[in-house]
Design goal:
By secondary structure, the protein is mainly α. It is built from 7 helices and no strands. The protein starts with 5 loop residues before the first helix and ends in a 9-residue tail after the last helix.
């Protein structure tokens, strides 16, 4: 049977849990973007990112059920996000994606997901010359 969504094609919830866990394992110790995350809400931050990615790629709509419309720029506006922060976010997410071999995250899906990560990261910039 052929997958009907990227979510299904890349292994469903297990893949997104592994991706987000790998990302946040790095963020917790990161000197640039780590301080943006509240110490008392790491689990909440992880859940929100996981729910968002799962919903975006065709999985269960838990994000909408818990948070409503994504409104990503609005939700991130309280944080000073410049190009360095966007680049670091991408660096850490890229390292998390590297933990998957080509069988777990086949190239067409990896490229599609990475393209999305880049667009979202740079869309969040609200400080400096790339802010819009």
């Amino acid at each position: 049977m052929q997958a009907t969504s990227v979510y299904e094609a890349v292994g469903g919830m297990e893949t997104f849990e592994k991706l987000v866990d790998g990302f946040y394992a790095q963020v917790r110790n990161d000197d640039l973007i780590g301080p943006m995350y509240p110490d008392q809400d790491w689990e909440g931050a992880e859940n929100r990112l996981r729910w968002f990615l799962v919903q975006y790629w065709g999985g269960p709509r838990e994000y909408r059920a818990q948070r409503g419309n994504p409104m990503l720029r609005k939700r991130h506006f309280p944080f000073a996000i410049g190009e360095p922060e966007a680049d670091r976010w991408l660096e850490l997410m890229g390292k998390s994606m590297e933990q998957f071999d080509d069988d777990e995250l086949p190239e067409p899906y990896r490229a599609q997901m990475w393209n999305h990560m880049q667009r979202v990261a740079y869309m969040m910039i609200n400080q400096g010359p790339r802010a819009y």
